[in-house]
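Input sequence (453 aa), recorded before submission:
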Amino acid sequence: MIRMTALALTLLTAPGPLAAQTGAQASDRQTPNVKLLSHLPLPAGFDYSHTDIELEQDLSRPYAYIGRIMAPTIGFDVIDLSNPAKAKVIYEWRIENAELHVGLGAMDNKYFKLDGRYYLVQSFQFAPGGPNPDLGAIVFDVTGLPDTNAIREVGRIRAPDAPGGFHNIFAYKHSSGRVLLITTTNGGRANIYDMGRFLAGDANQGLIGHVPWPVAAPIQTMFGALAGYHDFYVAWDPGTSQDKLYGAGFNGYYVYDITTPETPSLVTSVVGVFGVELAHTMSASPDGKIAVGQTEYLYSPVRIYDLEPGLKGEVQTINEPIAAWTGNWKGISHNHEMRWPYVFVSHYADGLQVFDLSDPKNPTTVARFNTHSGDPLRGVDPRQPTLIGPTGFTGAFGVDVRNADGLIVVSDFGTGFWTFKMDGFDGWDGSKFGMPNISSVQDWDRVRRPPVP
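Predicted structure, token format:
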């Protein structure tokens, strides 16, 4: 387990109380414009069990996948959302000899479609001292759902040169038509896999490239010395006709052109920003001009950046935000999904939070629902200063949004799986907001963008 140091950090908050921002009186638990549809506790006998969540986007495939950590539940669950108000678990997969494994277990999960078949990629993080320290991810064929007997493992991705697994992954439909999987590693870089090659039995597991972390040595953080990337967002940039990777690299954020994924090239970066340590997650607006950057420490806000000066070459790096937002200045945000102008945030002990980015310099909270129960645990107990313990790392972990109908799903570390609808948000298409129809959701069936020569 990673030990934390004391969290004595400068506070940055967005102006205005929640009630004023939402335009409606909010209860302690929720704003009235968020409707709870269903909740599955998914009990495990301890407080930390549920990690990332992935929601299939085709309404004819109403399935969500939630990662599970800590023995004996290391693996993933499949949840049937045929009726979102009556969500139910239809399948559980657990790794062999779970009790022998050292480390967290199943972390991030993503699905993709290739040659008419659907696949789930579940990432893992195991440490030396037990089985599978080099295991990064397992790929499953889930085409046959709802027939759970048809689910089958098709292969394992291993990274023996950088043991410790993949903390985060991103599945991307490249402009060339290839399906790529981008993964973190413990080797100070990201790996890029061609999943078509992987499924075909490529001797190199489909590995076609690396995204370097452009820092010479590990940096000192409150978690100790860290190197490499924590998280990714990848999207087509219609303004420059490039496939771009947005990587959170602990000391900041890096934007790479991966139009030729074998040789990524750095476009710009967001580094040297006051207070940015443990850069955690980054995403970009559909036009690639505005970025949302999260860090992961107590009291840290979500920062908003204007990427245009860096993209145009006016500056080499961007070193200050244009705005900041927080769901609760006392807490920590974890992950987010952007559906412009809305940003859906899993805000740990403060649950689901949604803010509006219509005016990037003035983000405003529009909705929330607290999925966490019990003591919010604001801070670090010096008697047990570990990631898994009485710290701020508790509550809403992952969030995802279905574009077809606006369904929102949340995974909570302790309380399990939740489904919501937000009033007035009945689906998302960028063109309705004057933006390209680009988000983390991929069009697996079509190559709508011509490859750049």
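Checked by second reader. The CA atoms of residues 299 and 329 lie 5 Å apart.
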